[in-house]
Structure formats: structure tokens, C-alpha cells
Amino acid sequence: MIFIFGLLSLRAIFMKTAFDDDELGRVEIRHSERARRIKIVIKPDALHIVLPPGASKQQGLAFLNEVRGKILQKQKKQIAHKRFIDEENSLQTLSFITKVQANAERKTVFFRLKDGVLLIEYPQGKDPRSDEMQQFFRNGIEFFLRKEAKRLLPPRLKQLANLHGFSFTDVKIQSSRTRWGSCSGRKSINLSYFLLSMPPNLIDYVLLHELCHTVEMNHGERFWALMDKVTGNRAKALRREVKRFSTSL
């Protein structure tokens, strides 16, 4: 059994049960045909217990209790480091900055991206720091992050591939929160739209990292030698910088 923190897109196949836990909040239990072992996944809406085929609800609850202490610690850290998005706290991405303001004429949250500014208007009288408003804001920001990532990342990947002599078969933009990118054995590259939260040189590092995997599929000496070649011998330094960033908004 393993224990995973993060956000995953999981398909419920057989059943779904939900309940409220006094300590952990909302908990959902579901089966997934893709799961190979019991997993605990922390998501904004609930704590998810994902069961592989054949595992019982009781087994999932027993595992939850085994790791309860660790989950509570993780949840406390997430709350302590929670970033609010409001009038005083904007979010800067590669192609836009957020601007939040109340509007007496709005009955719902409104978004508009223009000239590098993502305007977010919410109904006057609502608390912008409430969980409800913060979730609305994040959902909208992610919508535009995905659109901007689809517009900006594939052309840049192609540009870097041509510059350094790499080739790839396909590129997809995804919502991964567990990794910045990945490359399959068929040279198909996946990129997280959260990459846009990093500066351009670190985005390029991730793109080059995946392009190098089209030649070297592991992280052995030849891989890092190739990374140094395409980053001006700065692969390890750039890697350390990337670790300072998080995929959470």
C-alpha cells in the first residue's frame, strides 16, 4: 500500500461513498480499475480514498486510519501556505497577471483576459477570501492557464527541438500537479499548464528535460550530459531552481 498527496484525475468505476470526518473533513471512497494499490489523495473538495478492484471499503478505512496523523500534518501545512488571490494578492504567470475587484452589478464571478491582465470580478458583498470565492477564482485561472499553455508551450517546444536537433511525435497540455512534464517511449510529450507559473528560463529547462528524454529515457549520466549540453552546463543549477516552485496556485 502507498500513500500519495497531490491532485490526480481518477475515474470512478464501481462505486463512490462519501462521508464527513470530524478531523479530516469530507472523505470520498471510490474504486478505480486503474489503481493497483490503495491510495489517499488530497484534493481541494475532499480527501479521496482510491481502491483497486477487489479491495473493500473497510480496507480503505483501515489504511486511512493508519496514515491519519500524516494526512493531518499535510493538511495543516497546506492551510499555512495557502495563497489567497484577491485585490491585494495578484498571481503573475508567464502571459498574464490577475486583477481582482468587486463589482456591484455582478451576480456571479466574471473573468476576462485582455492585454496581459486577467480581470476577475466578483459580486460586491461577497468575501473574496471565502473558500467558495477562492475556488471560483482558481477554477477560472486554471481555465485560462490551460488556454495560454496550449497557445504558448507547443510552439516553444518545437522551437527548442529544432534548435537542438530533437524530434517528438506529439505534445499534450494537461493539468498534472505531480510532475511538470513527461515523455513516453513513443516520444510523445505531456506538459502541465502550471508551467506558466515559472519564469521563461525554467520553463525552457522543463521543455529541454522532456526533449532529452526522447533520446535518453532514464536519468543516467548520458542524460545529464545531454542536459548540460543544451543548457550551457547549468542543468543541475536550473533543476534546483525548479524545485522552488509548486504546481499549486
Portion of residues within helices = 25-40%
Outline, from the CA principal axes?
globular
What portion of the residues fall into strands of 2 or more residues? 15-25%
**Oligomeric nature of the chains:** single chain
Order of helices and strands: EEEEHHEEEHEEEHHH
Main structural class: alpha/beta
> Quick one: biggest sheet?
4 strands, mixed
| pLDDT averaged residue by residue | 88
How many discrete domains?
Answer: 3
Q: What CATH first level of the largest domain would be assigned?
A: Alpha Beta
Strand order of the largest sheet: 1-2-4-3
| CATH domain topology of the largest domain | Zincin-like
What is the number of helical segments per DSSP (H or I, 4+ residues)?
A: 6
CATH architecture annotation of the largest domain: 2-Layer Sandwich
**For this structure, what is the CATH homologous superfamily of the largest domain?**
Metalloproteases ("zincins"), catalytic domain
Count of individual beta strands: 10
Show unreliable segments: 1-15
Our Rg estimate from Cα atoms comes to 21 Å
Distance between the termini: 29 Å
Question: What's a quick, concise take on this entry?
Answer:
The chain is an alpha/beta fold and 249 residues long. The chain has helices spanning 57-66, 68-80, 131-164, 200-213, 221-231, 235-242, and strands at residues 16-21, 25-31, 39-42, 47-51, 97-103, 110-114, 117-123, 170-174, 181-183, 188-192.
Task: Note down, in words, how this protein is organized.
α3 crosses α4 and α4 packs across α5. The N terminus is likely disordered. The protein has 3 domains: 65 residues, no CATH class; 49 residues, no CATH class; 92 residues, Metalloproteases ("zincins"), catalytic domain (Zincin-like, 2-Layer Sandwich). By secondary structure, the chain is of the alpha/beta class. It contains 6 helices and 10 strands; from the N terminus they run ββββααβββαβββααα. The chain has a 4-stranded mixed sheet, covered by helices on one side. Strands 5-7-6 form a 3-stranded mixed sheet, with helices on one face. A 3-stranded mixed sheet has the order 8-10-9, covered by helices on one side.
